[in-house]
């Protein structure tokens, strides 16, 4: 699954993985597990993630190869957040060949830049319970106060508009070429990522080859 930050990849990947009875393999989860575990790869990744930059390919590839080799991924998986560029896509080819696996479809979630900025810059996280609200789509009853526990709602650094626009520029420079890469292979299906979650899910499921549905 490919698409810019804020397109809803994580949400859709979780739903689709459940619908298809396959594990969601998220690079975000892989990074957090390594960072939380204090592994060498995790420490390297954290420095880049804190700046809003992409983690170097050699670090990411090693983490993904290890995850895809685990037992629960042998019957299939849904990749969320990887590959992010053509170099990683070619590395994935090698990983999948070693595992006897292949890609069936690449879903591109399409959303306009300003919609992404609105979605992400409006998020507020509670300092106390980590509950997330949105100043437009899910405004707190009292400005700056968490509806869940009454804690302080703050804007995370990676949700600030400047950081978001930087992430989008990085995406366009490094990740968007994946669209052409997979289109040329006949694997790409583009779907609109606007509207309700259920609407986007329906479009995504319709794009999955029938034989791959759980």
Short structural description:
Helix content is 48%, strand content 12%.
Structural commentary:
The protein has 214 residues and is mainly alpha-helical. It has a domain of 148 residues: 3-Layer(aba) Sandwich (Rossmann fold). The protein is 48% helix and 12% strand. The protein has 9 helices and 7 strands. Strands 5-4-6 form a 3-stranded antiparallel beta sheet. A hairpin with a 5-residue loop joins β4 and β5. α2 crosses α4, α4 packs parallel to α5 and α6 crosses α7. The radius of gyration is 18 Å and the shape is globular. The chain starts with 8 loop residues before the first helix and ends in a 7-residue tail after the last helix. The model has no long low-confidence stretch (mean pLDDT 90).
